[in-house]
Amino acid sequence: MKNLANFVVGAEWLWIAIAGIIIGVVVAVAVRKKKNKVEIGLEDVASNPEEGDEHNKKALSILKQRLAKGEISKEAYDKLKNEFQN
Fold first, then answer.
1. How far is the C-alpha of 83 from the C-alpha of 79, rounded, in Å?
2. Does pLDDT of 46 surpass 70?
3. Predicted TM-score (pTM) of this structure
């Protein structure tokens, strides 16, 4: 029992490393979820092309909002805009 206590006390660096790994995983998951949320939003609009002009207007509106927020680059905006206008 004394050896176990010495190990726990003597291995503070291990506990700090474990806490760092857990925090890193939580941050990575949060970033990935946010990125997926951004991508999924536009796919939802693009999934039903039968709606015609209303569909394109909504898609372009979302694109403009994302460009304004800095979520997509100007190049990505232009590429996606061309897809919805064709």
1. 7
2. no
3. 0.40
Q: How far apart are the first and last CA of the chain?
A: 73
Phi/psi for 47 (5° steps) reads: -75, -15
Contact between 42 and 80 (Cβ < 8 Å): yes
Q: Which two tokens stand for residue 79?
A: 């590429």
At position 33, the amino acid (one-letter code) is K
Q: Which two tokens stand for residue 83?
A: 């897809």
Task: Enter the DSSP assignment of 55.
Answer: H
DSSP of 33-51, one letter per residue? HHHHHHHHHHHHHHT-GGG
- Other beta carbons within 10 Å of 59: 21
**Distance of alpha carbon 33 from alpha carbon 37, whole angstroms:** 6
